[in-house]
Design a protein that fits this description.
The chain is α/β, with parallel strands linked by helices and 581 residues long. Helix content is 44%, strand content 14%. The chain has 4 domains: 153 residues, DNA polymerase, domain 1, CATH 1.10.150; 89 residues, 2-Layer Sandwich (Beta Polymerase, domain 2); 79 residues, Beta Polymerase, domain 3; 234 residues, Metal-dependent hydrolases (TIM Barrel), CATH 3.20.20. Strand 5 and strand 6 form a beta hairpin. It binds 2'-deoxyguanosine-5'-triphosphate, calcium ion (2 copies) and zinc ion.
């Protein structure tokens, strides 16, 4: 974690603790300061070295008092006032407030009434029916808390793929330049593109493991070393754990296969090897057909593969399996039959149907977002700013008149744009599936994305199906409304949703924002199975976000999607044909 992140986290904790004590105004000031510190592009320790506390106070929303606390943290590693607050109120406030529906004041009440200090205490109190007895709480709240504790606990253990990938990329680039490194790859859930990861696994092939471990430990991205040996090491970096393993080049492929997982995929693969008279492990594939005791050691029998991953799968009589498919969901049988799906890749995409501008809450102007789509290489883009309606707070959404005015502006720019520009909207879905935009405007627009933004608890199937059935709706946006590690979103009966989508020619979005990844890959697989069409959209709120599409592409690949399953793999003409159906 950088010092900016560490200081921001402490300011947020102070905000929560002050709020729990009933202090007015200050908590929000601390939260605004925390946001600014986290977003500040210059390292706060550098500001301090060069200009002292005054330089820190120059950051937006950071006044003298908060700058003094940041300086205190840089000097001593602690903040005295925070330590005192922790002592007075000894609860794990960040863990507890991570539970949806539990805020600082709730934490205070439950501590005073029941002595709840930790997530375990909270879960036990809810399970024992004690929370409903506390004044101001009811059975419903208690049930919600119990349901959300498990989610919060999991969220504490896992990080977002979208945050880990840039860090892993920098580390890989560093190793690629190192003379002792023969090959380097990420492994584990990060290589399989799971939306959240427990840790970052990195594998290096080298004849000089010690030099590689040394280079790793001295990488400037390392915060602290957890453990280090001669051929492996684990460190903390920007809040992530990174596990490095170094293996001999002739075993790199076998190690990469093993450490990519998943565990279930590996177990099934090893059983297949045994049935073939082979032994598969992280060191290689060995022919043990004539051997009395194949378990006598790790490298028993004749090595038949190990240097490359393709060689490993080949020795097992199967096609190489893309990491995204390695979840033991039938990929092994299909690879053995030479019948794996032809997964789509990022280059198969021709456009984006869900992009925001500064007409609603985006950063870019219409012109900037259109030019960035062209620069990205798209053949078409559809502007989908927020409409007013359920879930839109703070005047973000456009009303019908504003949408009509934007439509004129889009048509004007479209006439001179180098790519095809469609006029769309992101309408909100009401509690019963109603659409928050008037029929006249809907009829004039080219693409209507409808998304749920409010009331995301419980089962959402009925309201989503109602939206899908609306004749003007073309795309169901981020269908469950989940936010990874923050809120679970709707439960859905994906078969019913997909059947309705297939019947009414509504595309189901894979929202590629790495905080969402919604639909999730298991939904994608079910949707395709039911004959529905999916569409991969970035939901870009800035020109730089077009690049997020890769997270959606890999989510689609985890759902076994081929180009024919994906609406925006079609050219502009094919898209128009779908929209007119
Ligand atoms: P994560 O980090 O929780 O998101 O998930 P992974 O899949 O990255 O798991 P991790 O980091 O514990 O281990 C990396 C890979 O190593 C894992 O995907 C498969 C392999 N592996 C680890 N432990 C075992 C094991 O006990 N048996 C087998 N067959 N493979 C294992
Ligand atoms: Ca891992
Ligand atoms: Ca690991
Ligand atoms: Zn959006």
């Amino acid at each position: 974690m950088s010092d900016n992140d560490a200081i921001a986290a402490r300011l947020e904790e102070m905000a929560d603790r002050l709020e729990a004590e009933g202090v007015q105004y200050k908590p929000n000031a601390y939260r605004r300061a925390a946001d600014s510190v986290r977003a500040h592009t210059v390292a706060i320790e550098r500001l301090y070295e060069e200009g002292g506390e005054d330089a820190i106070a120059e950051i937006d929303d950071v006044g003298e008092a908060i700058a003094a606390k940041a300086a205190e943290f840089l000097e001593t590693g602690t903040i005295g006032e925070l330590a005192a607050l922790r002592e007075e109120f000894p609860v794990e406030i960040e863990a507890l407030t991570a539970v949806e529906g539990v805020g600082p004041k709730t934490v205070r009440s439950l501590y005073d009434a029941l002595g709840v200090e930790t997530l375990d205490d909270l879960e036990a109190a809810a399970a024992a029916g004690e929370i409903r007895e506390v004044s101001g709480f009811g059975e419903k709240t208690e049930a919600n808390i119990l349901e959300n504790v498990a989610f919060a606990r999991e969220a504490q253990r896992r990080s977002l793929l979208g945050e880990a990938r840039p860090l892993a990329g920098r580390l890989i680039a560093r190793f690629e330049d190192h003379e002792a490194v023969a090959s380097v790859e990420t492994a584990g859930s990060l290589r399989r593109w799971r939306p959240t990861i427990g840790d970052v696994d990195v594998l290096v092939g080298s004849d000089d493991a010690e030099a590689v471990v040394d280079a790793f430990e001295s990488w400037d991205g390392v915060g602290s070393v957890i453990e280090a040996g001669t051929s492996k090491a684990s460190v903390r970096s920007e809040g992530f754990r990174i596990d490095l393993r170094v293996v001999a080049p002739e075993e790199f492929g076998a190690a990469l296969q093993y450490f990519t997982g998943s565990k279930d995929h590996n177990v099934a693969l090893r059983n297949r090897a045994i049935a073939m008279g082979l032994k598969l492990n992280e060191y290689g594939v060995f022919d043990v057909s004539g051997i009395d005791d194949p378990d006598a050691g790790q490298r028993v029998g004749e090595r038949v593969a190990g240097g490359t991953e393709r060689g490993v799968y080949d020795a097992l009589g199967m096609d190489w399996i893309p990491p995204e498919l390695r979840e033991n969901r039938g990929e092994i049988e299909r690879a053995a039959d030479g019948d794996l799906p032809e997964l789509l890749t990022a280059t198969d995409l021709n456009g984006d149907l869900h992009v925001h501008t500064d007409y609603s809450d985006g950063d870019g102007t219409l012109r900037e977002m259109i030019e960035a789509a062209a620069a990205y290489g798209h053949e078409y883009v559809s502007i989908a700013d927020h409409a007013t309606g359920p879930g839109m707070v703070g005047g973000v959404g456009l009303d019908d008149a504003e949408l009509a005015a934007q439509l004129d502006a889009i048509r004007e720019l479209a006439a001179e744009a180098p790519i095809e520009v469609l006029a769309g909207v992101e309408a909100n879905i009401g509690a019963d599936g109603e659409i928050s935009v008037g029929e006249a405007v809907l009829a004039d627009l080219d693409v209507v994305v409808a998304s749920p933004h409010s009331g995301l608890d419980g089962d959402g199937t009925d309201r989503l199906v109602a939206a899908i059935e609306h004749p003007e709706v073309d795309v169901l946006g981020h269908p469950t409304g989940r936010l990874l590690n923050r809120r679970p979103g709707h439960d859905i009966d994906i078969e019913r949703v997909a059947d309705a989508a297939a019947e009414h020619d509504t595309a189901l979005e894979i929202n590629a924002d790495p905080r969402r990844l919604d639909l999730r890959s298991s939904h994608v697989a079910a949707a395709i199975e039911a004959g529905a069409t999916v569409v991969i959209n970035t939901d870009a709120h800035a020109a730089s976000a077009y690049d997020h599409v890769r997270f959606g592409v890999h989510t689609a690949r985890r759902g076994w999607a081929e180009p024919a399953d994906v609406l925006n793999c079609r050219d502009a003409e094919g898209l128009r044909a779908f929209l007119e159906r």
